[in-house]
Amino acid sequence: MTDTPALPLPRVESKVAWNLVAFAACARATAELAAITSYGYFRDELYYLACADRPAAGYVDQPPLSILFLSAWKAVFGDSLVALRVPPLLLGIGAIVLTALLARRLGGGRVAQGLAACAAACAPIWLGMSRYYSMNSFDIFFWALAALLLAEILDVDPGREATRLWLLVGVVLGLGLENKISVLWLGLGLFTGLVLTPARRWLNTRGPWLSGGIAALLFLPHVLWQVANGWPTLEFMRHATQGKYKAFPLPWFLKEELLHFNLIAAPLWIAGLVWLLASRDGRRFRALGIVWVTTFVILVVNGNAKPEYLSPAFAPLLAAGGVAFERLLHRGRSVWPASVYAGALVLNASLVAPFVLPLLPVEDYVAYAKALGVAPSTSEKKEIGLLPQHYADMFGWPEMAETIASVWRTLPEADRAKTAVYVYNYGEAAAVDLFGKRLGLPPAICAHNNYFLWGARGQKPEIFLVFGGRREGHERVFERVDAGAVFTHPWVMPYENRRTVWVCRGLKMPLAEIWPGEKNFS
């Protein structure tokens, strides 16, 4: 049985409900600004700053776009917490606006746009991903922008010219790939959606193929970097999925998605998915729903993919849910049902906000989580302490650098010139680079992710200050090992706590021979 063309529906040109969208965006911005300097630099933020000092066409664990942007941003605004967190805040607001505009393009009026904007602003995972600098806030923005452009295209008859829109989609997909490789899922979902729906008629036009060509061309510099460096990201992804992340069986995965987008919002986005996939009015936009389904299937089949990886695909579901709820709850009558529902979304978001946004002093947060029965958690195979990992990784970095510097200062001045600092992961290394520089420490040497490619960074050390590890392990590599200061902090991850700074002398073999075996892409 073949699909018959959908009957043309009148193009809806409702006004943008800017007052409702602005209210949702301002409320979200107010919450984020209240916590913009709380706790401290996140581990990944420190790493981004380190990478931004070394612009390149790629990095072991990510494409370059967000880092190149940060390099330019930092040159103008500096590397303070406020400067670092303004871009993700603005991108988060942009995603809210795009979701509301998408609801309008799907045929929604004021109620639909308001509900979509409210749900986007109240989504805990989107709030959490825009609280610190990373590629994730860019990723959500690019997916939402691509969805809006695709909705514009799907609302146009294939007989009409839409090449300009397809070219814009190609640019967005290409930039998205230069930010995060998972945009390939968006591309695959789009192609699947075109094949499986009446929108396949677009495949007979040049638009989709030009779009794919532009995306591939924009992504080419990073592909060439991967080739030149032996495809390190594939090794990184393999190690991360096999050894770093926990397994997420389907029931657990679904539970996390319900929590990530505000439990009260579940009826909204589920209705949006049904509206896109099964309703007559949503038929012309069905490809958007298939993008979500395709991404969902990829992640579930993987088994070790973090549930948060699905979060960028939700903008069409939130927007379509706003349309479905507008037609169910409003239909020209009172807006009170939708207002009450929006109020429930905000109330639930207020209760869960401290779990994704550091609004409370850390002692108060621990008490709050305990009162609600929420235990600390991590998606990685690591022991957890009093805080969830996304908060624990915001503590201890200046203190760690100071502990290492305290041992550095005990060395004779003649020894300092031939001493290097060796650490085991990129968070520690980036902390030494940022905070240690102010304390007189040399750049960190580390074999984790892109630090491995940077090697000894021009140093030829004879003495090493090694942060962590065991004496017996170091004695297999060095002639002499002496214990220095011990780093302790109440809020850091347990594996970072109670770490000794070892003073190690007399390498038993050249560093160049040891280095290849130290590589840690994970």
Total beta strands: 5
Please work out how many helical segments DSSP would assign: 24
Spans with pLDDT under 50 lasting ≥5 residues?
1-12
Radius of gyration: 25 Å
Mean pLDDT: 92
Order of helices and strands: HHHHHHHHHHHHHHHHHHHHEHEHEHEEH
- Walk across the major sheet and give the strand order: 2-1-3-5-4
**Content-based structural category:** mainly alpha
Distance between the terminal alpha carbons, to the nearest Å? 48 Å
Beta fraction: 5-15%
**How would you sum up the major sheet?**
5 strands, mixed
Shape: globular
Keywords:
522 residues, 6% strand, globular, five-stranded mixed beta sheet, 58% helix, disordered N terminus, mainly alpha
Can you walk me through this structure?
The protein is mainly alpha-helical. Helix content is 58%, strand content 6%. It contains 24 helices and five strands. Strands 2-1-3-5-4 form a five-stranded mixed β-sheet. β1 (419-422), α21 (426-436) and β2 form a beta-alpha-beta unit. The longest helix is centred in the first third of the chain and has 25 residues, at 81-105. It is globular and about 80 Å long. It starts with 17 loop residues before the first helix and ends with a helix. Mean pLDDT is 92; it is low at 1-12.
